[in-house]
Amino acid sequence: MSNIFDDGDNPTTASCNNKNDWTCSVLDPIFDFVVANISRTQQPYGAWGHSARAPFLHRSLTYVPSIKIDVVVCSNAGWYTTPKNTVSYPCGLLGRQLPDEDIVAAFSKKLLIHLGQDDTKSRWTKKQCCS
Fold this sequence. Notes:
Elements: H1 27-37, E1 45-50, H2 53-63, E2 69-75, H3 100-107, E3 110-114, H4 126-130
Parallel strand pairs: 1-2, 2-3
């Protein structure tokens, strides 16, 4: 839930954590550290998240509008945060109302939704994978 609230299942404006404590707030500093240490100047960056990482990245775009990510691919998430102030977090924004400019910034990013079909069926057996 990105540590946006003390209790993500029962969010309130009062239980919102400091933005610096949000898990999604570490993405840009990690990126900057890597770029600096390999002597590069790349800006911005892309990200791909599968399963639980998909809604994490989607929330990162929504809640950190200045994030340096320009393209996100979200694969097979169980749910996403919809931009509705009438739906409770984490499925919506109720409890953490965002200014319109943050929503506009989130929609200015490229978000690709990747969905698999029958991804619980494997053609591989344990013997084939582990031998």
